[in-house]
Structure formats: C-alpha cells, structure tokens
Design brief:
- Belongs to the NDC1 family.
- Its main location: nucleus.
- The protein is mostly helical.
- It has a domain of 250 residues.
- The chain has 27 helices and 2 strands.
- The chain has a two-stranded antiparallel ribbon with strand order 1-2.
- The termini are far apart.
Length: 785
C-alpha cells in the first residue's frame, strides 16, 4: 500500500467522515404508464373521420339518387324530360329539399330517448327547454325544405300560375299558388309532429336496411293525402274568419278570395306533397342505414377505452379491501357509495372525498360506438383477440382495466339513480363545508378536527309547570277539567270590538277580514242537449250520437291517454347504452301511436364488462381484475333489484269504478241524445194511432219506457267504458313491464355469465350479506341445470 493511500485513510479516520456510496447503474426503468387521454383527444377524432367518410361516400350519393329519381318522375309527368333539365332540377332539389334534413339529423343526434306518458305530454315536453330549440329548428328546416321543393316544382312546370292577371295588383299571389304553398307548410308541420312522436333524433340502435318498411311507405302517403284537405279548410273557412280581425286583415289583404276553381289543383298538391314526404323518408332511411352500422376505427384498446369516458373525476386509486363495494353498506358514517353518488369525487374503487368536482358529462353517441367496438373485442374467440386482451386490457399496470370498469360502473350508477327517481331529476350531492379552524390547531399546524358539543343545555324554567293552552277551545276544556270558574276564561276570549264608523259605504269585505268563497259553476251539457235535440231532425241526432261515440273512443282520448309503457321508458332513458355495459343481445320493442311506429332497440353493451370479467379467469396473468369482481357483481345485483322493484310498483292506479269527469259527462250526454231519439220515435208511433186521452196515456207510457231504455243504454255504455279502460290499462302495464324486463334480463344474463364461468371460485371473495344471498340464487340455479 502506497504512502498516499495510507495518508488519505488516516485523514478520513481522523475526521470521522464516512466514505460516500455510489448507486449501481441499471438499464431497468419503472416509469408509470401514461394516463389515457379524454375522448375528445383520442377516440372522437377517429370516429368523426369514419362518420365523415360515410357522409360523403354513402349519405350524399344515395340522397342525390333519391332526388334524381323524384325529379325524373316529375319531368315524365310534365312531359318535358331532358337531361340538362333533369341534372339542374335534381341538384336544386337535393340542395334545397334533402340536405337540410340530413344536417338537422346530424346536429341533434343523441342516445337519450324523449319519453312522456302520453302523446300530448310528449308534444308539450318538446316545446319546453331544452328541447324547444331542437323542435324550433326542425320546424324551420322542414318548412324551408318544403317550400324549396315546391319552388323547384313551379320552375319545372310553367303551367302553375304565380300571380293573378290584374293591372291594378300585378304582384298579388294566385290562389292556386297559395293553396300549393299552404299544403307544403301543413305537410312540414305534420311531418315534424310525426318525427317528435317517433323520436327520430335518437341513434339508430337497430341496424336498419335500405329496404323500405310498410310504415315508411304508408305514413308519408297518409300525410300527403291529409295536407291538401287541411289547406282547403284553412283557405275557405279560417282565412275568411280572420279577415274580420283588425290587424290580421291587413296581413291577409294580399291573399285573394279563393274560388272553387282551385279544386282542380288538389291532385297536383297531393302529388307534390307525396314527393316531398317520400323524399324526406327516403333520406332519413339512408341516414339511419349509414350511421347505424358499427364502426371499426382502431384496434388500439386505449383509444376505445378513452371513448367511453363519462366521469370527470380523478384516476381511481385501488382500495385496500376487496370486499368494499360501491353498493355495500358503508362501515362508517363518513363513507359513501360512489355508485349512488357518481358526481362525487370518489371513484368506484376508493373511499369518498369531500373535494368538489364538476358534474359528469352525459353519454354521447361516441360512448355507444366505443362500447360496440369493445364488445366485438370482448366477445371474440379469436386467438388474436385473446392476445390483445391479455396484452392491453389485463396489463400489469391495470390502467386500461381500471379506467374501463370505473367508467362502466359510473354509467350504471347514473342510470341507477335515474331509475330510483322514476325518470325525475337526480339530486346532486354537495360537499360539506369545511370546519372552521381553531386557534390552537392552526398554531400547532396539526390536523383540523371539528369539535362536537355533546353537552345538553339546561332549561331555565320549571319543567313540571302545566303548559298553557294554545287555542281558546283548549283553554275552555282545561278549565272544565280543573273545576275552575269559566268567567276567567270566557271573558278574555271576547275581543274588544272597535267603534263602527258611520260611513258604511266605505267599509269593504277585506277591511272586515271576511273572505267569500264563490263556488265554481260547471257547465252542464246534458240539459242543453236535452233542450236542443228535439229541435233537430232525426238523422242529425243519430249522426251526432255516432260522432260522439266515435270521439269518446277515438283520437282525442288516445291523444291524452297515459301509457305506462312510455312512462316506464322514461325511467331508463339511456337503456341501450346501459344495457350494453352488461348484455349483448338485440331486442326490439314496438309501440304504435297515431299511425307512428316507434322502434326501441336494445343493442349489445354491458357484455363488455361481463365478457371481459369472464375472460380474465384464463387471460389475466397479473390479477388486475380480481379485486373488482365483488364490486361488479354487487353493482349488477343492486341494479337488478331496482329494476324488479320498479316492475313490482307497476299496478293499476285506479279502481274500476273511477272514471275521468269528462268521460262521465260525455256518457251522460250520449244517454240524453239516445233518450231523445227514442222519444221522437215514440211520438211518431203515437201520432199514427188514436188521438185523445188514450193516445196521451200511450204517449206517456212510451216516453217512460224510452226514458228507461235511455238510462239502460247509458249504464251499458258506462260499463263498456270501464271494461275498455281496464283492458287498456292492463296492456299499458304489460308494455311497461316489458320495457323494464329487457333491462332486467340483460342484467340477469350478465350475472349468470359470471357465475357460470367462475363457479366455486366465487367463494374466495367476500360479499355483503344481501348480495351474497342473491348471488347464491344464481349459483344454485346454475347447479340445478
């Protein structure tokens, strides 16, 4: 050993300084996985590019073909067919008549159904915020499209008069032009009404085809047939009445009084209306066919998982206990369920926090499209798909799986809250205010612990003293019970009467504190009908009776009638997306309302969660899914319990004896009309017989018999109406149970899939007692099979 090294060691030992240790370098890296970006940065641009390509390669060419065929038929009808005129008119009709409808569907595409108990309630809901903007834009778009289609028709056919032949008023529109334009406006309004009832702005969950449906052919034809007659009614009846109004008459001055000669253009009005309605219907079918197909944007699972983001909360932190769940009963008062409160800052896997967060965004069409693509990956049996699941979904860091299961549980939790609220507004939980810091804790810098005052304040009065009576009657009763004198009690009850002023005319009822309740006088139709009906001819009375019976059981009642099926559909407005998280079956439910076919479908989405959970048994090498299986099963079972509870609450709300007041009045009026008709028949029979006293007796007897027959007919009509209401209510209840049953069946299939896959291995997990008891039923059912 050299002298220099010995001197260095001696110097270090003298100063007692330790020798520095340097770490050994290694090529291994333990960096965390990058966070998954939101959908607006990763998945939505990919989905929008695919949808934009479909818009330019499918929707635009097919809608242009529809315009070409419609224009060709018009030119053949006019007898002025030429290729140049065909090309120009087709492009004009496509730009002005069909593209506005496409852009309207594109702007208001959604996955949330607009549900209401009755068609009238649905219409009222469509004209209230936030749906009023969509309805207003729909009316404006269809009016513009209808008028531009009519303008193209007028440009092609020069025989349609535009202005009247008058030197004094050369620019006054011709009544034929007014009739055709009014027909187009009424057609646009009727088509928007049909679109509201069918809820056409919802994403086409059922894969449509280009083949036209019967309702798509018949409904536009029916609207086109009705529009010209409604226009004639407005032109010949409503407009002449409005001319008597002071201000409206000035606006209607350019419209000439129509003549009966305009009836010759009714077939043309019907043809133009049918052309317009069928063009809209064909364009809507092409739109649904192009948009409803599943997307294939990217094979990257991280991009697909970013598309299902609905929660604006921090990244999940794995819980220390595998038994704690979003649906389990909290072990302390400070622990809350993140499933029941999805807007809170705690996720489905961590304890609750009091930090305020922004409310979650509603599911969009991209959420449904991302779940559809994830389903194809989760349910595939291809070895390449299994390799992709093991490498990306069940990775060692668990970032992809944690994000996926968290978003799925948050989405189910929000729909669970909507179901518990029966379609109403879900109350948002606000964070509690922070405790005021104390001087001692702030000075020491320790934890701020709120102090709870457990000392009961002492009352500064005699607790054994009798309580004073709150009312004069109670004081009199107390005096009688105690045996005391009543003078001391009655005298204070008499208030001091002020001096009455001499001017009695200035005294009002309000000054004396007197309120008069005037009973509401209801209009009685039966006496009026009984007095007027004998003055009418017999055939008029019979026609009125038939019209009344048809109106009682026709469109007005169906327009206001509450449907339990539509009401239950509002309890689960996004059932397609929420069912897609659990199950993967295509189910169709049809409702027919006023000649409108409403298709509600249940596409595959919840199978993503259950299929991946089942695949983790053999493909999850690191166990990232195992800690979340209790939470998933508890969430599904709790949602299933809420669905079954909602199904059990569906029962007849009214007894058979209760009827609406207006229907009782209508039945009474019909009975009076029938009685008058019978009396008039008896009078005819008596007048043909013997006159005199015997004839009067026979007449009185026939009147009594006819009155009895009228009462019997009224009671019979009332019994028939009760029976009809009972049958209709049972049908509506069955429809409501079907709507909820589809969601319940999807949840049952998802739970059964997990229990069949894991079997006895579920004993390794800890569940709450209620969840374990319900899960045992599925296990026993699987063993019994």
């Amino acid at each position: 050993m050299s002298s220099a090294s010995m001197s260095t060691a001696a110097r270090a030992a003298a100063t007692n300084v330790p020798t520095p240790i340097r770490a050994i370098t290694t090529p291994l890296r333990t960096t965390a996985a990058p966070p998954i970006p939101p959908a607006s940065q990763l998945y939505e641009p990919l989905a929008k590019s695919v949808l934009r390509r479909r818009l330019t390669t499918r929707i635009f060419p097919y809608s242009l073909l529809v315009s070409l065929l419609s224009t060709a038929l018009s030119l053949l009808w006019f007898g002025r067919f030429s290729l140049l005129r065909l090309a120009g008119a087709s492009v004009a009709l496509w730009l002005g008549g069909l593209l506005p409808v496409v852009f309207l569907r594109k702007s208001y595409l959604t996955v949330t159904h607009t549900s209401a108990p009755s068609p009238l309630s649905l219409l009222n809901k469509s004209f209230t915020p936030p749906l009023s903007k969509r309805t207003t834009h729909a009316i404006q778009t269809h009016l513009l499209s209808a008028l531009l289609t009519f303008a193209t028709h007028v440009a092609l056919d020069s025989r349609v008069p535009v202005f009247i032949k008058s030197r004094k008023h050369p620019y006054t529109p011709h009544p034929v032009l007014v009739l055709l334009a009014l027909t187009q406006c009424i057609l646009a309004s009727l088509y928007v009404l049909r679109a509201i009832l069918r809820d056409v702005w919802v994403f086409p969950f059922r894969r449509p085809t280009l083949s036209p449906s019967p309702s798509g052919v018949v409904a536009p034809l029916f609207l086109a047939l009705f529009a010209p007659f409604a226009a004639l009614l407005v032109l010949f009846v409503v407009v002449p009445i409005l001319r008597y109004l002071p201000i409206v008459s000035i606006l209607l001055r350019p419209i000439v009084h129509p003549r009966l000669s305009v009836l010759r253009v009714v077939p043309r009005a019907w043809a133009v209306a049918a052309q317009t309605a069928w063009g809209w219907e064909a364009t809507g079918g092409v739109w649904s066919w192009a948009v409803g197909e599943p997307l294939y944007t990217t094979p990257a699972v991280r991009a697909l998982v970013s598309g299902i983001s609905v929660a604006q909360t921090p990244a999940p932190v794995p819980s220390a206990s595998a038994a704690s769940s979003a649906f389990s009963t909290p072990s302390s008062l400070t622990r809350a369920s993140s499933f029941l409160n999805p807007s809170s800052s705690s996720s489905a896997f961590s304890s609750s926090s009091t930090a305020p967060t922004t409310p979650p965004s509603p599911p969009s069409i991209y959420t449904h499209l991302a779940y559809t693509e994830l389903l194809a990956l989760a349910s595939s049996t291809d070895p390449a798909a299994a390799k992709t699941r093991g490498a990306e979904v069940f990775d060692v860091d668990g970032a992809v799986w944690g994000r996926l299961v968290r978003e799925a549980l948050v989405l189910l939790g929000r729909e669970y809250q909507v179901l518990l609220a029966r379609g109403g507004e879900v109350p948002t939980s606000s964070a509690p205010p922070p405790a005021a810091p104390s001087s001692s804790s702030s000075a020491s810098g320790g934890m701020l612990t709120p102090r709870i005052n457990l000392i009961t304040p002492v009352k500064d009065k005699n607790i054994f003293a009798p309580k004073a009576a709150s009312s004069p009657g109670a004081r009199v009763s107390a005096a009688l019970a105690s045996g005391g004198a009543l003078e001391s009690v009655v005298v204070p009850l008499v208030p001091a009467v002020p001096a009455v002023p001499l001017n009695m005319n200035n005294i009002g009822l309000n000054n004396l504190g007197i309120t008069l309740s005037i009973p509401e006088v209801k209009w009685q139709w039966a006496p009026l009908v009984k007095a007027v009906a004998p003055l009418m001819p017999g055939w008029v009375r019979r026609v009125l009776e038939g019209v009344g019976r048809v109106g009682m059981g026709g469109v007005p009642r169906a327009w206001r009638e509450v449907r339990k099926g539509r009401e239950a559909a509002g309890w689960v407005p996004r059932r397609e997306v929420c069912v897609g998280v659990v199950e993967g079956e295509f189910l169709v439910l049809a409702f027919v309302i006023l000649s409108s076919l409403l298709m509600l479908t249940f596409p595959p989405l919840p199978a993503v969660l259950t299929h991946l959970t089942c695949a983790s048994l053999t493909e999850d090498r690191f166990g990232v899914v195992q800690r979340d299986i209790p939470r998933i099963l508890e969430a599904l079972i709790s949602f299933l319990g809420a669905v079954e509870q909602a199904q059990a609450s569906l029962r007849p709300a009214k007894s058979e004896g209760e009827m609406p007041e207006e229907e009782k009045v209508l039945i009474g009026v019909l009975g009076v009309v029938g009685e008058v008709v019978g009396v008039s028949g008896g009078e005819g029979g008596v007048s043909a017989g013997v006159e005199g006293e015997a004839g009067n007796k026979d007449k009185d007897g026939s009147e009594n018999e006819n009155e009895k027959e009228g009462k019997k007919e009224g009671k019979k009509a009332e019994r028939e109406e009760r029976e009809r209401r009972r049958r209709a209510e049972m049908v509506h209840l069955e429809e409501a149970r079907t709507v909820l049953g589809e969601v319940g069946d999807a949840l049952k299939d998802g739970i059964a899939r997990i229990t069949r896959t894991f079997g006895d291995k579920l004993r390794a997990f800890r569940f709450p007692p209620r969840t374990a008891a319900r899960l045992q039923e599925f296990v026993e059912f699987h063993v019994a099979q």
